Structure formats: structure tokens, C-alpha cells
## 1
Amino acid sequence: MTTTLFIPTDDLCLSFVNTRSWRGTAAPVDELGGISDVLVWAGQANAALAGGMQAWFAAHPREATSAFSAAIALREVLFTLFADTAEGKLAALSFLNAALDRAGPRLHLARQDADIGWRIENGPPCAERLLAPVLWSAADLLAGPRRGLVRKCANPQCGWLFIDDSKSGNRRWCSMSACGNRAKAQRHYMKRRKADA
Ligand SMILES: [Zn+2]
């Protein structure tokens, strides 16, 4: 059995949701345009897991297309789920639970050099397995004490979600500098122009 060590990163689920920017505008910016983008993104969290699927998806274009659709559908479900959470609503869990089933289990902990991570079993490539660390992050955030700290940026055009880890507990913006500040607006503008080109 081939296994992979996965070392969790904080709130990967929100980082994944935020691969789509400016949700509140007529021209949202999406970092993910195909399965190759999802593989690169997922590779940042777990290079071994994503790298193992890369060649398989390259050789199976039809499955790659449906895996990309499934990845985006998952992201949008997570967005709704955490946007609801930010508003104090209890979200429906059935879609996430079905995805967790398909993602496969976290088996047990293992050491790798100075690190400790989850040993996970590699299985048939699919969106849920590729994004398993995102799904576990979502489940851990929902079932943990920080669920009440999920916020949606106060800029209605932004749409990014974040954890309010401020001492005062009243952080409103996705970034410490106001979301609407000129530098950031310019950066997103340039990114959007690049995406549209
Ligand atoms: Zn924002």
C-alpha cells in the first residue's frame, strides 16, 4: 500500500475558498481555470498527493475535466457553508460528509524528520482525494472551537472568508489594511486584466 504523509496547514479550507476573488462584482477573478491549476494549488499543501495524480489526470482527460468540475463544485459548497457559518447559521453537512467519504480516511500519525503528520492511503485519483486536506480542514474548523471566528470580509465586493484572530474580536476586513485600499485594488485589477487577457 502506498501512503503519503500530510502535515496540516491552518484553515486550508478558507484558502481554497479564497481562490475565487471579488465574488461580489460582475467580474470575479478565479485562480483555478483547469485541473492543472487545482493540482498546482493542492501541491502547495501536499506535493506528494498532488504529484501522484498529475500523470494520471494528464493521461485521462475526460476524468480530469469531471474532476475539475467536482473541485469547483466542492469549493462553492464550502464557500456557502462558511459564509453561512460567518452569519451564525448552521449549514447543511450532507454534501461535505459525502465528499469526506470519497476522500478516504486519515489513517494514523507518523513522523518524517522533525515533523509529525497524517499518514494517508493513496487511492484512485478524484477531486475529493486531491482535495482531502481541504475537506479535513473544513471538518476540523466546523467541529472545533474556532467555528465562531469565521468571518466574511466587510467589503461586499470582496467575498473572501477569514478567521478573526484579533484580540478585540471585531476584525472586519480580509487583510489588516482595509480591503479597499488602493494597493490591493490595483493588484486585483492587474490580476483580473491578466486573467481576461
Ligand atoms: Zn476583503
Note: The helical segments are 12-17, 35-45, 47-59, 61-86, 94-103, 127-130, 132-143, 182-196.
## 2
Amino acid sequence: VTPRTAIQIRTAFTLILLQLLPSFGYSDDVPLALRVGEACHAFEHLGEMGHQLDAAVDSGATVIYASGVGALGYEGLPAADLLQATCTSEAAYHRRAKEKGIKLVVGYLCATSIVKLETFDKHWTDDFRKQFKTPPSEWLQQDRNGKTLASWYGGNYNPACMNNPDWRVYEHAMVRMQLDVGCDGIFFDNPTVHTKGCYCPHCMEAFAQFLKVEGVAVPDKSAEAVRALSDAHKSEFMRFRTTIARDFFADIRAYARTINLNVLITANNSLNAPSVFYTQSVNYGYNIFEMSKAEDFIVLEDMSTQPRITADGKVIEYGPVLKLVHAIAHGKPVVDVKIAETDYHTPPNLVKLAFAESAANNASYLVWTTWPGQQRQKLSSATRKQVDLLRANQSLLNGGKPRRDVTLFLPFRRWQESKDCRALEIAYELTKSNIQYDVFCEEDFNLDRLVGAKILIVESMNVLLKSEVKVVESFQTNGGRVIAADSPNWTDEARNAIGTPSVTVVGPKTVRAYVTDFPDKTVVHLLNLNIERVNSFEDKVTPADNLQVLIEAPSPQVRSMNVFTADEVPAANSAKFEPKPHGEWTTVEVALPRLEVAAIVTLSSEVRK
Ligand SMILES: [Zn+2]
């Protein structure tokens, strides 16, 4: 398929989709190399273990996160001969990666770190130094009194300010150096602002601008006067902090695109645990809603929420987090790293499950392909099996519309008011019950977004703005139902309002089903969360046997079923299905003798008129 044909097909497809499905679907408008299923993201370095290209390639990776040249940036560049040697060897490594089928090499750069300030500029040539108006000691984040802020990470590390023009020039140089050695994009680590905020003159200038946009008068623009204003406008200052990384990415992206129009900019959006969904904006200025405006895709680095069951029966999953992130991601592709117990190694069946859970949620899992020698074969082949399955079936993973028996409002602005994200708790409840839902945030709170929705869940009517209450009233006038989840039996209320759910799983409580609609088929992702982590390289699967799944398909005719799985004992061959049409819909009863890890079931129908 030539690119032009691909575009034509995609356009035609999008038109069909728009006709049939009047409301929101997952974006189909992302670079091919980042599409779910097509992309397999891999970290190919861990601690002392670098350059694990072969393991990444064996695992089916197409996007690697390399560290070579960018990591040098931490300490302000080494001596010229070492720098040259590193650039040469990294360029060769990136060429080899491309020859082996890697589509994107993403370089690494820290957005804020200056390590060993005393020697940071020691090896700079006069030409390099000439670019800067001030020495590195003046690039640092500053406290309320304009004094240099110490690192909140500890160690011999000083935080540079992302608003500092000289720091940006330095970062531009580091970006150029990496593009020159063959990187296709840059992954920014640690794009954070000091827990106390930065009050440097550049931030104060930007904050004055921010206040103006907010309608606050700024009579005196001197740094000291604006610092005083920040005392009186704490909420605005807190919000301003969360825009600093965004503006930094926008600047870097614009610069990088003067060198290569296709450069991709992404960052560690942190979210180390679901519990920090709100608080990471307060504590470190990590705000996915703002950062996603200037990123080409979003990387999340969770440290404990790898889907699984614990020895004491606790079910852990990440799907609800992904749904909320999509609501604030401005349609950008979402990539998630999710590990268990802060261990970067994941055993084989849990790797498959992690991939499958991300794909079910229109996201791409990022795997660490940094296994010790004796484990490598087992883990790369398990990874490969799941990756190949998703890649072969990527048309089932992109451009669909998630089924929504209910739609959930995420008032993301509440990160300033509450430590806990109530909408995330609600999402977890819905996922646990296999209730199909999507999520939207305040930016999309309008009647268009609610077209086709029957039930809207809000955490409480009290969190709505006046304008949102008006939208809710119109939604109700048009027959929509609103459920406030601040009553104790809101889940029963939701179940009753839904009536026949889109999917019913008759089987263990650890099975999840995610339904997505396409014009000619309904796709159901099935996940078995009943997999226990034994250690870094072993897990224990308790399969779901004799699984029965009832699916409502939006078509009077369901003609065929397919089951795709990377399970060792595939259920596909002996799965049965029985369609029972009723009006414009069909209830399809699917019987799977065994689900080990994950499967994708497709029910193909005629396109509705
Ligand atoms: Zn600053």
C-alpha cells in the first residue's frame, strides 16, 4: 500500500466511521510508526546494561529509547575526543538499529538536570560557550527570594529552569547532537519544577504574562513585584508551574523541527502510581493535561501497577488509569511502562498481559528488554509472540470507538482541590464490573461530546461549573440520565439504568472485557488478571476455564467470530458462538474453553444502513 492509498483508505474509513458513529472514537490520526499494534516500544538499557538492541529486536521492538549521547548532557559534555568517539559509536548503533527494522530511535535528554555544576562547562570550546549569555550557575531554579534552589532529588544535582533561555540553548544543542547521530525523537526525563516553585526572573516574566491572560493586572513587571503577586495569587501560580514543561517542549519541538520536520517529542509524564494522578501536578508540576498539548506522544512510568493478582488475592490493573489519561491527552498516543514492585523485569505471561491490557485501552506498552543472559530467550520469545499477534491485528486496535454504556466526567481541574481523584476510583469500580465506559474532561464538556451517550456519571453535582450544569440539563431534556456517584448505591443505580449491559462475563471475577466498535465488527478484548508474579522471571497462571461471554453487537446480523490469542493453549480452535438477533442488535453468546492470558474476539456483522 503506497502512502497515498493509505491516506485514501484512511479517509474513506474515517468518513464511514463518522457517518455510523456520530460521537468520539479513538484517534486514527497518529504517525504510522506509533499506531497501537504497529509500535512496540522498548527500553534497551538498564543501569550498567546498555545497548541491548538485539534483545529489543528479537522481542519485536520497533521503537527504542537509546541513552548514549543524551546522557552525556547531564554533566555538561565530556572532553572533545570522548564526545566525538561517543557520537561516532552511537551513530553506528542507530544505523544498525534501523537495518534491523527499528523504525524510531528516541534519544534521551534530561529536561532539568545539571550534575556537578562546578565542572559542568569545563570542556566547552569557545565556540560552544559563545552561545550563552550567562554561566550555568545562573540557569538554576530559584526560590521566593531569588536564591538558587537545592535539588529535591538529592545528590550532586542542581535543577536548571526550563524557562531559562540559556538552558534552552544548551538543550537545543543537545537535541541537535542527537538528531545528528540519527535519533528520530527525544524523550525528556524529569520535566519537573521544584516543589516550592521556581521564582527566577524568567519564570516571573512568564508568570506576569500568565496573570495577564487570567485578567490580573500586573502594574510592575519587575521580578520582585511579580514574586509579591505570586503570594496573592497562589492558585494561579500553582497552575502556572504546570505550564512550564509544556512551554519548554513547545520551544524544543519548534527548534527540532527546523532540523527535521518529523521529529517526535515526548517525555516522562511520571504518574509513578495511580494515587498521584492529581498530586503530581501539585508536588512536581507534572501535569499531563498541559504537557500533552506540546508532546507528540505521552509516556507514563508506573512503578507498581502491572496487571496481576497478588498472593493474597488483590487484583491490580491499569486500564482505568489509561482511560483517564486518554481524557486529558488531547488525542495523543499513550505509551505506558507499568512494572511490579519497582522491578524492571517482568515474567513472560505478565508481559503478555501487560501488552494486551494496554492494547485493549488504545495504548502501547513499553517493555524493558534488558534481561540477564540466561533469561533472555524465554522472555524475548514470550514478548515476541504477543507483539506479533497485536501487529498482525492492528486494524482491530486503531480507529474504533470504545463502547460506552456510561460516560464518565473527569473534572481534571480538581487537582488543585483534592489529593484523591474521585473519578479514578469510579473508573476502577466500572472496570471491575466490566461496565463499558469512556471518560472526558472539562475541555470536552459539551453536548457534542455527549451525543449518543445515555448515561453520564459525575462524581458529584457539586463539582460542576454553571456552564456544565446547563449542558447536563440539556442532556437530561434530550433523555439522558445523570448519576451522581456520591450516593452509596450509585453502582446499582448505574446497572439498573444500563439495563442489558454491552458485555457480561460468566466466569471468574478476574476476567476483564473491553468492547470497541468498528463499522463492520465488534471487537472484544478479554484479559485474565489471575496471574501471580512469583519473581522477576516466573509467574503462575490460573486460567479461566469454560468462560462464557455475552456480547451485545450493534447489528441484526453477526455472521462470524474470530478469536486471536498468543496463549500457549489457544482457545481459538474450540471456541463457539451463538448469535441471537433482536431488532437492530444481536446478543452473541461466546463460549471459550480456556483463557490463559488474553484474547481478542471479533464479531463480524453487516454494516448497518
Ligand atoms: Zn524559573
Note: The longest helix spans residues 234-259.
